[in-house]
Amino acid sequence: MAVLEIILVVFLVFSALMAVRFDEELISIIFLSIFSLILTALYLLHKAADVALAEAVIGAGLNTAIFMSAISQIRHGDSD
Amino acid sequence: MDIRILFLILVPLGTAFLIPFIDLINAKLRRFFVLLGILLESYLIISIIINNFQSLREGDFFLQYYLGGWHPPLGITLAMDGLSLLFAVITAVSLFLIVIYSIGYIGHHEGKYYVLYFLITAASMGVVLTADMFNIYVFIEMLTITSGALIGFKRSQEASAAAIKYLIYNVLAGLLFFLGVLLIYFNLGTLNMADISQNFASLESGIQLFISAIFLTAILIKMGIFPFLFWLPKSYDTAPSPVTAVLSGVLSKVYLYIFIRLFWTVIGFETLVALNLNVLLLDLALLSSFFGHVFALQSNNIKRLLGYSSIGHIGMITAVIMLNTDAGFYGGLLHIISHMFMKAGLFVACGYLLQYTRSHAYRDFKGVGLRNRSVFIAFIALLLSMIGMPPLLGFASKWYVLMAFLEARSYFGAFIVIFGSLTAVIYYLRYIAKGFEEVKLTEDDLREEIYSRPLLSVLYREKIVSFITYAYTAIIVGFGLGFRFFDLPLRMSIESIMNVERYIELVLGG
Amino acid sequence: MEIPTETQPEVESLNKLMKKTLISVVLAGVAFALYQNFSLMPGYEGLNVGLSNYIIESGLKDTGSLNLITAVLYDYRAFDSLGESTVIFGAVSGIVLILSRKMLPVSSKGLSFIVKRTLGIMTPFIALFGLYVITHGHLTPGGGFQGGVILAAISIIFSIVYGSAFDYRRYSPQTKTALETGGALTFLGLGLAGIFMEGAFLHNLGFLTAETGTLISAGSIPYINIGVGFKVGAGLAIIFYSMIQKTFEEDF
Question: What number is the ipTM of this complex?
Answer without folding.
Answer: 0.89
